[in-house]
Design goal:
Pfam families: GldB_lipo. With about 450 residues, the protein is of the alpha+beta class. It is about 45% helix and about 10% strand. Helix 3 packs across helix 5 and helix 15 runs antiparallel to helix 16.
């Protein structure tokens, strides 16, 4: 009987302990940090040898193969390769030593993140669950998402002004100023920003939708946490609002300008990267301020359908951020673009071109920059593209015409698509132009 009582007590104890395994750590199933531990285990093995085969084996067996779906996701989204990791580990030992202690604090962030998530849910009751994964990558993102997963790059997100960047090459030298902003102190903000992204519909490939997408996450996070954005782009944007709006209006319809506004070090006149975050933030703030029902405004922002142009246009119109309608701004943009005004050797659409023609000279409405060029296939495909066009391409001295060599055959239709990669010195893109002709 005594043994039965002990057994019964033990079973009851186990049942109580297992009834709610998340009681002590409510984030145990939502915030996963095992990839950080695994990385440092792999790192400690990798640095013991100069044998590259062993290094790759350690990385694969101790980090990749033990990795979570979060690690798999961040590698997919940011194209991290094994070579990226091995080169970073071998080239930046001072950096890794300086960041290690911070990244190992990841498990302690869970409770703070839960508070932030609850605040977000108060603002947006329809909040869907998402998991947060702390991983370690090679400097391409402090935070991103894939499906319902928030993916944190701890080697960036958990840095601070003491992080050693002295070994970094020019290509990632901007990280020194990034670490100076003390991102480790803003982990909750970063995570809630990325959490918002897991609630949004997919964006489309144009600059305006992309900045709104980021602006929504930034603005909603500010509202949820009731704190200013720690990202310097927002304050800088407020202080330079008019000029930023003017430049964005001029550039937003050209996809090649993404790098000037989002996730790139491409030079711009402001000397501040990622100002698209500010543009999107300001659009959202304007929209929110004019709304009578603030919670409904938040819901509308988060649930924006980026594939529906009329919805995006209506959202932007209500925000009243731009100086004119999107249609008027696009017409203005189109009117400033250079055009192809003709071909020197024959008229476009000609059906009687001499097959002995050895070159085609394309004439432009104004001088271009003389180095951005791109020709592509027309809708007839590769069979209709002239041979011999690769070598010997030349610009005229005034950059108002461009000549390409060709090898033509009799009685054949040809197409050459002149793309919008041709640009003026101030970066305005050429209107695309299809050259089509037939030889006699």
């Amino acid at each position: 009987m005594k043994h039965q009582s002990i057994l019964l007590f033990f079973l009851v104890f186990i049942a109580i302990a297992c009834k709610n395994p998340e009681k002590e750590n409510p984030q145990s199933n939502n915030v996963i940090t095992s990839d950080v531990i695994n990385f440092w285990n792999a790192y400690d093995h990798i640095v013991t040898t100069q044998d590259s085969v062993l290094q790759y084996n350690y990385l694969d067996s101790l980090y990749f193969k033990k990795g979570t779906v979060g690690l798999e996701g961040v590698r997919q989204v940011r194209n991290y390769t094994a070579q990226d990791y091995i080169e970073a580990i071998n080239n930046y030992p001072k950096f890794w030593n300086s960041i290690r202690e911070n990244t190992l604090e990841a498990p302690k962030v869970s409770s703070k993140l839960q508070v932030g998530i609850e605040k977000l849910k108060t603002l947006y009751p329809e909040l869907k669950p998402a998991k947060i994964y702390f991983t370690i990558g090679t400097f391409r993102t402090p935070g991103t998402t894939i499906d319902s997963l928030v993916l944190i790059g701890a080697e960036l997100a958990m840095g601070n002004p003491n992080t050693d960047t002295s070994e970094f090459p020019e290509s990632i030298s901007h990280l020194k100023s990034y670490y100076a902003t003390n991102p480790n102190k803003n982990l909750v903000f970063l995570n809630i920003h990325e959490f918002v992204h897991t609630q949004q519909k997919s964006r489309v490939n144009n600059l305006l939708s992309s900045v709104i997408y980021e602006g929504v996450a930034e603005f909603v996070t500010v509202q949820a946490l009731n704190q200013p954005s720690p990202n310097p782009q927002i304050e800088f944007g407020k202080n330079n609002a008019e000029r930023i709006r003017e430049v964005f209006e001029d550039e937003m319809f050209y996809v090649a300008n993404f790098g000037k506004w989002l996730n790139s070090n491409e030079a711009n006149e402001f000397g501040m990267r990622d100002l698209g975050y500010y543009v999107g933030y300001q659009i959202c703030e304007n929209y929110y301020n004019q709304a009578e029902d603030k919670q409904a405004a938040i819901k509308s922002m988060i649930e924006l359908d980026y594939e529906n142009e009329s919805i995006i246009e209506a959202f932007v119109q209500k925000a009243n951020y731009f100086s004119a309608s999107l249609n008027e701004l696009e017409q203005s943009f189109e009117s400033k673009r250079p055009t192809v005004i003709g071909i020197e050797q024959f008229e476009n659409k000609s059906q009687n071109v001499n097959p002995s023609t050895k070159a085609i000279t394309i004439k432009f409405s104004e001088a271009l920059n003389g180095y951005h060029t791109s020709v592509d296939l027309g809708n007839l495909g590769r069979e209709a593209f002239p041979k011999g066009t690769l070598n010997g391409r030349t610009w005229a001295e005034d950059n108002r015409s461009w000549t390409i060599p060709v090898e033509l055959e009799p009685n054949k239709t040809y197409q050459i698509f002149i793309t919008n990669n041709f640009r003026t010195p101030d970066d305005r893109p050429l209107k695309p132009y299809l050259i089509e002709f037939k030889t006699r």
